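QA checklist item 7 of 12: single-chain prediction sanity check.
[x] sequence parsed
[x] length recorded as 159
[x] structure emitted
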Amino acid sequence: MILRQREYFGWPPTEADPAEPSEGLVLHYNGSATSLREHSDCVAYWQRVRRFHIDGNGWVDIGYSFGVCPHGEVFAGRGFDRYQAAQGTTAGNTDYYSVSLMIGGVESPTEVQLGGLAEFRGLLLDLGVTPCVRGHREFFATECPGAVVGELLDQGFFS
């Protein structure tokens, strides 16, 4: 698994509050299609999301713990052991890691993206996080993580 740390994106350490997420992970998507083809597109997308979360939402940092790009690389957001802003609830943001699949619309996750997510999930399990995988919609009235990922969740794909 390739895990790109914050320094890769030119970001300083996060100022997000500490937390101890251990209940599992929550999947997210973008909403509209991302159309990420090249790795450089993924990096630029992740940087845009962070700018939007800080400048548009007024958050201290990108809202997600991590992201998984269509090429299977895992991108650090707030990172390990940090409070997130992505779930929309205090317990969800404290107790779960948030992972953006960096897709949107009717885009499907790629096989290597699902492989990267599985490897990252294995790392979380090794760290003592439960195997629970939920969708953002389970915490907040939203379409997220979209129809495609929502269907995978409903079918127990991540169980």
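[x] summary fact logged: The longest strand covers residues 25-28.
[ ] second reviewer sign-off
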